[in-house]
Design brief:
The chain has eleven helices and eight strands. It has 372 residues and is an alpha+beta fold. The chain folds into three domains: 177 residues, no CATH class; 53 residues, SH3 type barrels (Roll), CATH 2.30.30; 89 residues, Alpha-Beta Plaits (2-Layer Sandwich). Strand 2 and strand 3 form a beta hairpin. Helix 1 runs antiparallel to helix 2, helix 3 packs antiparallel against helix 4 and helix 10 packs antiparallel against helix 11. The protein is elongated and about 140 Å long. It comes from Thermosyntropha lipolytica DSM 11003. Its main location: membrane. It is found in: Cell membrane. Keywords: Cell membrane, Membrane, Transmembrane, Transmembrane helix.
Length: 372
Amino acid sequence: MSYVYDHLKWQIMGWMQRDAFWMWLKMLGLSLLIFLIFIVLRQIFFLYIYPWIRKITQNTETELDEKIWEAFEKPLSALFIISGLFFALKYLPLSAQLDLLLNKFWRSFLIIIITWGFYSLSGSHSSLAEELKVKLNLDYTIIQFFSKVARILIVIIALLVLAEEWDYDVSGLIAGLGLGGLAFALAAKDALANIFGGIVVILDKPFAVGDWIKTPSIEGTVEEISFRSTKIRAFDQALITMPNSALANEPITNYSRMGKRRVRFYLGVTYGTPPEKIERVAVRIKELLANHAGVHPETIMVYFDQFNESSLDILVYFFTNSTDLAEHLATKHDINLKIMDILAEEGVSIAFPSRSIYVETWPEDGGKGRED
């Protein structure tokens, strides 16, 4: 009798274990089916629904909605996969602790996905950044700077929300970050001064890459502008790195921003030159400048200006059309040669520094010394 009882007991337990196994296998199969359904939904969404939404956003007045959908494309793709895993695992008979942990992971992944989308939206190479650059006429460096600041803030906020989700003391962490930020600001005040100097330089735009600038301490061509420093190539080809904090506090002359370039010099002729010839030379030089293709037609002045110690000075004042140094010098070269031709044709000589010495008395012996 006991043998029959034991046999029936083990038989029933075997059936129960087999039923439990098949039940577990069934739930596992359904979980896998749920995950596959989300994968199929993802394909349907990005093949049909997402293009339809993008088409609608292209017809709206603002382009912001289009940029948002573009930035969230990859995060949405990941959301379908994470959602499929979450609901598939939720269907399985998990313990209360595992279920709580799964919920925390689910909310954490949602935070990460949202952060991912906004992080992509705030990128310096994103289409939104390119649009702001064109509409607001901003320098790429300033776009890059604010992009980095925005991304840092997005990541910090996401980390704080994640810490709150996982039951960390966020208030203590914020207080610690405040003290740490104060200490960092005091330790890096020079670096921060250079960064703010860079912002001033970029926003005011006193120069751009490729401009020829001059300050009391440096002169050359700007090669690179960053938030910490500006790199300038001097005319002797030395590369000089100038801190922005120092550069922002100096007067800056930008020769590349000139609309035209000035030429001013005195043409000194000899004192024996007759007035009518001086007048004739001045008129011919003025006609030369007025008809020269490289000279700006406005503000041409050629006048007999002053009596110098050894010359009669004719002021020659004009502007070249080109501000490029090589073209400017070529124009001056051509004009100077033609002025020499005018002087030669008019028989006028260029004066050179000289002094006349008058001796009131001359020694009787002709300046020879006496012998005692």
